[in-house]
Design goal:
By secondary structure, the chain is of the alpha/beta class. Helices cover 20% and strands 18% of the residues. The protein is built from 5 helices and 13 strands.
Length: 244
């Protein structure tokens, strides 16, 4: 059964490279409301059998076995692991480095930034799950450091920013602004002492500091809260599923 739709290689910068960067939507699965329908996360209250079938469908669409879609246990932190060291669904961490051809990893999200890194020279990559806590914990710098330890250079990386909540919908408290050291251009005034935060801009600043030029950052430009009919969004109402 084809997924309808499955966003395959949404970034022009990745096309033609020997790597695939894709994002699923919430369509084409078997989960019932409020997880309808392509929920890919066991961490939700969805029936495990439904999530297993949803993952099988995604894997089949990509000509993979479900076990070949490697994912750890996301904890909203900064820890990074090599794909070979990740026990499926068990190893705590929010980024996975991929260095062997023919392997695949995924992260799941419902507003947080799903990031895809690819070294266009060394041909290795990574995926990362980066909400505000992960950004504050240094998940971007840690991921790039892990890639550089294998021989990559930050200047050779292409980074894709997948569907995530955008500044139009992401109202946070002053503790979040403070934890991220957010520049004034990265947020606008909200209600009272609250602010609307631009997570993509924060991530771009952190990437720039590690040596990734803005011209090598590709943003899907999709707000999950605004497009809750197509992507899961925690801010649109709990409980909800997760896309990859």
């Amino acid at each position: 059964m084809p997924l309808n739709p499955l966003l395959d290689e949404p970034f022009a910068a990745f096309r033609g490279l020997p790597a695939r960067a894709w994002f699923s939507t919430r369509a084409g699965g078997v989960s019932l409301p409020p997880f309808h329908s392509l929920n890919l996360a066991y961490l939700t209250a969805d029936d495990r059998e439904n999530v297993t079938e949803n993952r099988r469908r995604v894997a089949a669409e990509l000509s993979l076995n479900p076990d070949e879609l490697v994912i750890g246990r996301q904890v909203h932190g900064g820890e990074v692991h090599a794909l070979e060291d990740v026990e499926q669904g068990v190893t705590p961490g929010d980024a996975i480095v991929i260095s062997r051809p023919g392997t695949a990893a995924m992260v799941v999200a419902a507003d947080c930034l799903p990031l895809v890194f690819y070294d266009s020279v060394g041909h290795r990559g990574a995926v990362a799950h980066a909400g505000w806590r992960g950004l504050a914990a240094g998940v971007i710098a840690n991921t790039i450091n892990a890639l550089e330890s294998l021989g990559s250079s930050a200047g050779n990386l292409i980074v894709g920013v997948g569907p995530a909540i955008h500044a139009c919908c992401y109202e946070v408290g002053p503790e979040v602004i403070g934890a991220l050291g957010a520049a004034r251009a990265e947020y606008s005034t909200g209600r009272g002492d609250r602010a609307f935060l631009d997570l993509v801009a924060v991530a771009a600043r952190q990437l720039d500091r590690t040596g990734v030029a803005g011209s090598r950052i590709a943003d899907a430009g999709i707000c999950t809260r605004c497009n809750n009919g197509l992507f899961f969004s925690a801010r649109a109402g709990e409980p909800t599923g997760r896309f990859a």
